[in-house]
Amino acid sequence: MKFDFHCHSHYSDGLLSPAELIEYAEERGIELLALTDHDSIDGIALAQDSIQSSQAKLRLIGGVEISALTAFGEIHIVGLNVDVQNGALKAALKEQQDKRWQRAEDMNVRLAKVGVVGVLDACKKDVIQVITRSHMATAIVSLGYAKDRQQAFKKYIGKKGRIKVPKNWMTIEDAIALINGAGGISILAHPTRYPLSNRQLGLLIAAFKLAGGEALELAYPSLNKDKRDWLLVHLEKHNLLASSGSDFHYPNLKWTDLGRFPVLDDRIPHVLNQLNLSLL
Ligand code: AMP
Ligand code: MN
Ligand code: MN
Ligand code: MN
Description:
Oligomer: single chain
Shape: globular
Distance between the termini: 15 Å
Strand content: 5-15%
Largest sheet: 8 strands, mixed
Helix content: 25-40%
Mean pLDDT: 96
Bound molecules: adenosine monophosphate, manganese (II) ion
Radius of gyration: 18 Å
């Protein structure tokens, strides 16, 4: 089955609207899709509406990518198959969205102090629900302070950029409890993309399991075979499931696309087999 369990719409930092995303997924023959916007589940009902009105064949799963804080820094937890009507989840995500706007205000002040003026005003020219550094990078480029988004991250808002980026997210325990409370499965997103040594990443995976985490992403575009094999050892050690997702944000990129990631060996236990597809 062709599926993708990690992608974004313009409800966070993706380019496409939920309806455009559904159309795009249909064109690519995707049969099962989880929309996993950063700290938002608000695009999912619209995506579902567009499936109905366009009579698309694909099935949609409720999803979310929650930013959380650990002793190892900030991580992302994908919640798969969450009930988008769940009140506790909705309220907690609203709180994260408010924190994101507060963080953007803070960053805007810090940026102005190093001569990068007007970033938040430029962001606000678009309708944004969940503000991310991705939106700010685009604004920094449009204002002429960086030649492209990569440079905006490198110079200003990335890990080693000039601006300190406050992190004020919920704990992993809270994120996992919210996801489970909404009937979903919690997945550690793109484990190799955090700035951690192998030893630290091993400890993070152990902490994620201890907090109730259930799965690791084991197939995504930037993950090579050596790293995947390394992750597989930790997956087996902690009895975790695997998940797969492209982390699609924009069409027409060379290195990634919706539904594009390596196919995993059938013998690896996968979240796909944990979903009761007949009930979806
Ligand atoms: P935030 O969650 O607000 O910190 O924003 C993080 C988002 O920015 C990620 O989900 C990526 O989509 C994007 N991002 C992070 N780092 C980079 C980078 N170096 N280059 C391009 N996009 C990035
Ligand atoms: Mn993103
Ligand atoms: Mn992420
Ligand atoms: Mn993502």
